[in-house]
Every structure is written in C-alpha cells, then in structure tokens.
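> forwarded from #structure-qc
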C-alpha cells in the first residue's frame, strides 16, 4: 500500500466530482484530478502486467497507462461498447505527476457536493476492501461512492511489476 492520499472533505466546502458507472453502481472522482474523457480507443497490451492493467494508449503523442476499474475492483470483465469511456486522471506518485486512463462503463455528469453531505465510508468488515473509498454521498435518490483516486493504484502497480 502507498501513503498517498487525498485531503479529507471539508464540511462547508463545495467539491465537484465526475460521476461514472461501473456494473450498475455510481462512483465519483474529484474533478480536479480529471484531465480528459475519451471514448474507447486502441489499447496496446503490455506483457507481464496485472490483469486489470489493460495496456497503453497514445494520447496525442504521450503514452498513458490504462486500467480497467471493473477488474481492479474484482468485478467480472465486460465487453466494451459505445458508452464505454476512458477517464484520464492525473495524480502525484513517487514517480512525480502521473497520468493514467481508467476504463469505466459510462460517464454520467459532474456533481457538486458540500463536504458535509459526504459521509465517511462504512465499515465493510474484512472481506471487502474499502481503502479506495473516500466517502459516500446521496445524489438524486442514488448513492455515489466517492473514490480516493490516489489510492486506486499503488506505486508498485505503476512500475508494471504489479
């Protein structure tokens, strides 16, 4: 595990999150970490990488690693379709600023939330890993799982040694 982590959400501050869907569940990531959203594109596989590491994309001359969040979260693999998207995020790691693509089922919208409306993650017990979860929020009669994007990949994962 890594020591990178996002700042806790403050009670009165408004935070914006990109909302997306994976396997019928809604997730959100800090909009300030999102660099761009793309439809599916050709991904070049890299041998000897973890199953969730789909490979690399060429983003206007820059090589960006891509993970499939379904697989990273231990969900069943799904066929990509016209709604499947790659969210390119940027975060700080021991390697400096890193861009990474995350394959998601579909991107929904940007939502604004007051920090006080985001509850801490529940205690799931020992069977379900919750280290990626920054908090939970209710928006439009649904629950959004707010992800701590800095903890989705460990620094070891970023070396392709997984």
């Amino acid at each position: 595990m890594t020591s990178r982590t996002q700042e806790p959400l403050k009670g009165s501050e408004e935070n914006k999150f990109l909302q997306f869907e994976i396997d019928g569940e809604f997730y959100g990531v800090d909009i300030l970490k999102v660099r761009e959203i793309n439809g599916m594109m050709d991904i070049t596989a890299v041998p000897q990488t973890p199953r969730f590491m789909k490979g690399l994309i060429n983003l206007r001359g820059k090589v960006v690693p891509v993970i499939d969040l379904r697989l990273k979260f231990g969900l069943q693999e799904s066929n990509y379709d016209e709604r499947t998207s790659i969210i390119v995020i940027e975060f700080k790691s021991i390697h400096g600023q890193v861009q990474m693509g995350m394959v998601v089922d579909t991107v929904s919208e940007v939502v604004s939330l007051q920090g006080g409306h985001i509850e801490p993650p529940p205690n799931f017990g020992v069977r379900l890993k919750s280290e990626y979860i920054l908090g939970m929020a209710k928006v439009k009669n649904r629950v959004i799982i707010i992800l701590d994007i800095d903890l989705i990949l460990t620094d070891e994962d970023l070396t392709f040694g997984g």
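QC bot note: The longest helix spans residues 69-72. The helical segments are 69-72.
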